[in-house]
Amino acid sequence: MLRKIQGIEVIEGAGSKVAFYKNESELSIHRPHPSKESLRYRIKLVREFLIEIGEV
């Protein structure tokens, strides 16, 4: 989802870490594993990031 937003830079880190950047804002999280479900706190972080960059 975040990869489709215009202007988002994605940096793949070691292991499951991934960081998203837009302007001065940054979101750094780990991909869910071994299951594909995201935990509630990760969803909250993504939502807060989207609000911060003006996408929500």
TrEMBL record:
**Protein's name in the database:** HicA protein
Natural source organism: hydrothermal vent metagenome
